[in-house]
Amino acid sequence: MIRELLAAAAIAGAAIGLAPVAGADNGRYEGDVPGMNYDASLGAPCDNYERFIFGRGTSGQAEACHFPPPNQFPAATTGYWVISYPLYGVQQAGAPCPGPQAAAQTPDGLPMLCLGARGWQAGWFTGAGFFPPEG
Fold it and tell me: Read out DSSP for 71-133?
């Protein structure tokens, strides 16, 4: 009797332990871009703040690697992960976009933002505004 009870408990424990693994997705989402970092962690350091800046945290939240402002003290030597607008994959500059607060990536890895009637535009958005890439 005890043997059967222990066997049933072991089977039930294994089934419960494996259930979340069996139901988990592969961590990829519609709109993900090439070069995504799937180990992003909000507020953690990152070094890909110029190209291929997007990642996902463990919750699936889209994140972006941003470099702190230059007037920060002490001076920062690395970027950090921040929450990103929802991602819409790889886009072409000027193509129509879904509306404000949307992010994408150029084919060569630059971040893009939806700027309304201007469509998708490559660049970075900070508290000081939108900055297109130099050159």
Answer: T-SSPPSSEEEEE-PPEEEE--TT---S-SS-EEE-TTS-EEEE-GGG-EEESEEETTEEEPP
37 three-state secondary structure: strand
C-alpha triplet 21, 80, 134: angle, nearest 5°: 125
Round to whole Å and give the CA distance between 66 and 82. 7
Name the helix (H) or strand (E) containing 57: none
Candidates 106, 102, 134; CA nearest to 122 is: 106
What is the Cα–Cα distance from 97 to 87, expressed in whole angstroms? Answer: 11
For residue 113, the Cα-to-chain-centroid distance in whole angstroms is 14
pTM: 0.75
Q: Please state, in angstroms and rounded to a whole number, the distance separating the CA atoms of residues 45 and 96.
A: 33
Annotated domain spans of the chain: 28-130
Encode burial over 28-44: b for 16+ CB neighbours within 10 A, e otherwise: eeebbbeebbeebeeee
Tens of pLDDT, residues 102-119:
999 999 999 999 999 999
How many other β-carbons are positioned within 10 Å of the β-carbon of residue 86? 15
